[in-house]
Amino acid sequence: MAAKPLHRRPVEPPERDSLATRRDASESPAEGAAKPPKAPAKTGRRRAAKIVAGALVGVGAVVAAVRTSGYRLPPGVKLVSLSPWQYLVVAAAARRIVDPDSPDAPTADAVDVAGFVDDYVTRMPAGLRADVGGLLGVVEHLAPLRAGHRRRFTNLGPEAQDAALAWLERAGGPFAGAFDGLRALVFMGYYRDARTWPLLGYEGPTLPPQPARATQAPGGGGP
Q1: How many CB atoms within 10 Å of residue 49?
Q2: Is the CB of residue 220 less than 8 Å from the CB of residue 151?
Q3: What would the pLDDT profile of 15-34 be if each residue is shown by its tens digit?
Q4: Does any domain span residue 48?
Q5: In a domain, 23, yes or no
Q6: pTM above 0.85, yes or no
Q7: What are the angstrom distances between the C-alpha of 209 and each of 54, 60, 129, 189, 214?
Q8: For all residues of the chain together, what is the average pLDDT?
Q9: DSSP assignment, residue 74?
Q10: What is the pLDDT of residue 45?
């Protein structure tokens, strides 16, 4: 196989080379001259929070893409922001997070925690809505795997679901604080209902007694 010919640049006359060399030397900085310092990279808690949120959303999106089919909503449920699988993840997680200790306490389903979250997420900024979606993807797919289960969260029994949520509560890195966010949504949805207030020892809002106002006959004056 013949070798390819080398393409060389034509040799310039010596006069042109010398002129170019002198011009380049005058335009280039002197050797050893101090170089301008580079601008420091911007860091801080705000940037770190964006990185963590982005990682959480990214991981949640990947694991949620594995399986998001086969979900059936209860009859009569109409969603405004969550997808069917997200709604069912919230409902399943709420049953474990606010599992009633007494038979008289209302269940998460009776209070419709998942319906509250569906409506609440609608009023969130787009970025926060994406964070919630990523979080629910982690709960449904990744947390069970890390807890030693191959089935998704909504198909696990109560004890296995507790183990998955326990892993999320202990997890660090991009998942730090994820469980707290989920629990906050569930608590807002559960304890907004007056039937749950006795569990907190709360009797409801009360107003101090107001003194009765003296009434006067229309157009009347004093005696």
Answers
A1: 11
A2: no
A3: 554 444 444 545 455 555 55
A4: no
A5: no
A6: no
A7: 52, 52, 43, 31, 16
A8: 78
A9: P
A10: 42
- Per DSSP, helices labelled H in 74-170 are 84-97, 108-111, 113-122, 126-137, 143-146, 158-170
What tens digit of pLDDT does each residue of 87-123 get?
A: 999 999 999 999 998 888 999 999 999 999 999 999 9
Distance, in Å, from the CA atom of 198 to the CA atom of 112, rounded to the nearest integer, reads 18
Indicate the number of domains in the chain: 1
For residues 160 and 164, what is the distance between their CA atoms, to the nearest angstrom?
A: 6
Give DSSP secondary structure letters for 194-208.
Answer: GGGGGGGT------P
Residues 6+ apart with CB under 8 A from 142: 59, 60, 63
User: Do 108 and 176 meet the contact criterion of CB atoms below 8 Å apart?
Assistant: no
d(CA 175, CA 193): 30
Instruction: Please give the Cα distance from 123 to 82 (Å, whole number).
Output: 12
Within a domain: residue 112? Answer: yes
176 inside domain: yes
Please give the residue range of the domain that contains residue 156. Answer: 56-196
At which residue do the structure tokens 């039937």 appear?
195
- Match 């997890």 to its residue by tokens: 171
Q: Contact, 91 vs 113, CB < 8 A?
A: yes
156, burial (CB in 10 Å: exposed 0-12, middle 13-18, buried 19+): buried
Residue 75 to residue 143: CA distance in whole angstroms: 28
